[in-house]
Amino acid sequence: MVEPCLVPARMLNEVVYCPRLAYLEWVQGEFAHNSDTVEGRTVHRTVDRPKPAGLKRRASAQSAVEAVESGEADEMAGTIAEDEPEAPRVLRSLTLQDEALGLVAVIDLCELDEGRAVPVDTKKGASHSGEVWEADRVQLCAQCLLLEAHGYQAPAAVAYYAQEKRRVEVVIDQNLVERTLRARDQLLALEATRQMPPPLVDDARCVRCSLNGICLPDETRHLRGESTDPPRAEAAPSLEFWQPALRRLVPARPETVPLYVVSPGAQVRKKEECLDVWSPDEGSRTVRLLELESVNLLGPVQVTAQAQAALLRAQIPICHFSHGGWFTGMTIGLGLANVELRRAQYRAADDPAICLALSREFIRGKVKNQRTLLRRSLGEEAALDLRRMRHLLAALPKARDLDHVLGLEGAAARIWFRRLPEVLASSKSDHTMVTSFAVRNRRPPMDPVNAMLSYGYGVLVKEAAVALERAGLESRLGFLHKPRGGRPSMALDLMEEFRPLIVDSAVLGLVARGEVDTGDFVRCGDAVSLSTAGKRKLLSAYERRMDTLIQHPVFGYTISYRRVLDVQARLLGRALLGELPAYAAFTTR
Fold first, then answer.
1. Is the pLDDT of residue 41 over 70?
2. How far apart are CA 122 and CA 65, in angstroms?
3. What is the pLDDT of residue 65?
4. What torsion do the CA atoms of 33, 36, 37, 43 make, to the nearest 10 degrees?
5. CB-CB neighbours of 165 under 10 Å
6. How many CA within 13 A on the CB side of residue 98?
7. Measured on CA atoms in the order 467, 324, 506, 363, is the torsion positive or negative?
8. What's the CATH code of the domain at 298?
9. Which of 194, 254, 260, 471 is geometrically suited to a Cys-Cys bond with 569, CB 3.0 to 4.6 A?
10. Which residues pair with 270 in a beta bridge?
11. What's the domain count of the chain?
């Protein structure tokens, strides 16, 4: 039997507050926490916790809320004398649904008294100048409609604003009922049409919204040419010119960081709300789950079932690598249910024209960034090769098929890696290690520089896969790199534009500063790999690079490379859904 589609009363609150927010949460299944949502969850957890004995006979729902929040519930329990009249009964976390109404709600507190019911909804913030916010009024009205559908009289409701400790009553009239039913129909229409509402325009609501990094309201309008200072008219949006800064609605750096476990024989165990990481050479250290973006197991590392379950519940991916740094897979929870975006990605992957357009853009970003680094490093010494790379960039829009695109990418890569020894030559590192690099080789790498590049690219693939999965995209279905067993093709696509900016730059920095020497590598026959100490040095340099702040060339605000990667994954999703005219690779000047 097919379950009926019931709209949660909380979603009515969202659609009145911001239709785009409601669409992201209800239709696409997106959600993210910030300090406001965590605080709100804490307030509700306090209200919803089991009631001590004797708390059933409470003078009012307001006193019940205040008693629980102040910790005085035990003292207040049983204070009503036996000869006092029976007080209204208070129920908590009452779930009601009705198929005829098409609604479902979880009522924080409900005061029942001889057939009359008063729902009380707890809000962490403040009232609207002593009145109930319109979105909250609609949510409370939905709760009253459900109570009436179950045989209670519910002519009024209460919003309790915890910040002010204020109880505000809402009278349910016909106008409010009609407004509530229109909100329900609006949400159902959004689901049926699958048309995402446009972002708000320079609205203060975006500042405190937990989904602003997913919604990207200002960035979306800017790239669609709807902002105050739109991009120049071009065939496709470009990220190569400066524009006045948009509002940066998210922190410049993510609030969570990846955990790397490198030591062979290490174990990752759960310890309360933390992970305990034990290794033979470093002993134990504790990391809080709230601080983790991902857990990366490099080589023979154990993770207990309890730790894995905790990471899955927290939606923290576990990324697995071979001893040599090959990204072998990712363990993730059920997480995001953005089926709409996945379907758009599958349709696009079956369209040769879309695959070609996206592939040109991925490679344009890579070649442009390689050329920028070459110009910075060698300047006029590489003038001829810089012109050649410019000609390759000019030829990309005319590429006839994916093989042509890959041919242009290969030509640019040969120029970049042929010049790389000259860039390394001025470094302070071991002369033998620098001069051993002559050409890019892999599987296996045959010199220290190639070993670092291969290992770094493996970590960057993971980074792109995590960003794509977080954005709701399938990391194994690519457009340039065709799907193949054991290959995260979409992650390989997205990482192309970031290879020179992150991995190549991190390796160049390590060599230039003399932070690595031949003792950080292990040779076996013709193959060269990093030692455990060498891996730690490379990962440290990689993370410094990912944490580097950069001014976005289009949006104007300053964010880290890790945040840029997340933004690019989101913009790719918006392009696949048709909200943006095209995807534009990230390039630096």
1. no
2. 8
3. 45
4. 150
5. 12
6. 13
7. negative
8. 3.100.10.20
9. 471
10. 275
11. 2
Q: Are strands 283-288 and 274-279 parallel, antiparallel or unpaired?
A: antiparallel
Centre a 10 Å sphere on the Cβ of residue 565 and count the other Cβ atoms it contains.
25
Q: What is the pLDDT of residue 244?
A: 55
Taking residues 385-397, report their average pLDDT: 95
77 and 172 part of one domain? yes
In a domain, 361, yes or no: no
Between CA 120 and CA 123 the distance in angstroms is 10
Tokens (6 digits) for 501: 């900016």
- Give pLDDT, residue 84: 45
Q: Is residue 503 situated within a structural domain? A: no
pTM, entire model:
0.85
- Please, are residues 524 and 510 in contact by the beta-carbon 8 Å criterion? no
Question: What is the Cα–Cα distance from 123 to 472, expressed in whole angstroms?
Answer: 30
Which range marks the domain in which residue 306 is found? 257-331
Per-residue pLDDT tens digits for 468-516: 999 999 999 999 998 887 789 999 999 999 999 999 999 999 988 888 8
Q: What is the CATH number of the domain that holds 46?
A: 3.90.320.10
321-325: long-range contacts, CB 8 A cutoff, minimum separation 24: 321/296, 321/297, 321/458, 321/459, 321/462, 323/264, 323/298, 323/299, 324/444, 324/454, 324/455, 324/529, 325/298, 325/454, 325/455, 325/458, 325/459, 325/530, 325/535
Q: What is the pLDDT of residues 404-435, one digit of tens each?
A: 999 999 999 999 999 988 888 765 555 666 66
Measured between alpha carbons, how far is residue 183 from residues 14, 154, 193, 218, 420 in Å?
10, 20, 15, 25, 60
